[in-house]
């Protein structure tokens, strides 16, 4: 990250549509099978989708997603455009350290997720992953522990009821663990916009 003479972050202002055209060229050249975006809100997606001469739309949009940030409007928009929503932070990123907002409560200690987990003999981790999947979002979870990796895959042997889903939906508060405030003065900064 570069800084200006005052020590402030120096931003590039690269045109998104020009960047997308280069990605389309990569796809045409066979260098990639598909192309997508990350951390795009509806406005940024529409810039790409409304680009004159668009050859390929984004196949996915990777965004923060968990019970405290369900991004309902963005999910509905992406679904209407056949763009897959991929969720990171599904578990609240407990090992992220100073990168995440420490003021946002832990998902894994939420009493509702714990209670629902007990009903299915599952952990809050497994409930959050399953919830994400049932919302139609592809969850990204990681662990360096082989045992936790195994547990993360044990989400295909149960299904949350509509009542469970509604209860977890009610946890949404539009709380972000990842705010990337170092970039808040960039013209494309959009983390305060949830749709």
TrEMBL record:
Origin superkingdom: Eukaryota
Boundaries of every NADP-dependent oxidoreductase domain copy: 13-172
Signal peptide: none
Molecular function via GO: oxidoreductase activity
Recorded family membership: Belongs to the aldo/keto reductase family.
Protein name in the entry: NADP-dependent oxidoreductase domain-containing protein
Species in which this protein is naturally found: Engystomops pustulosus (Tungara frog)
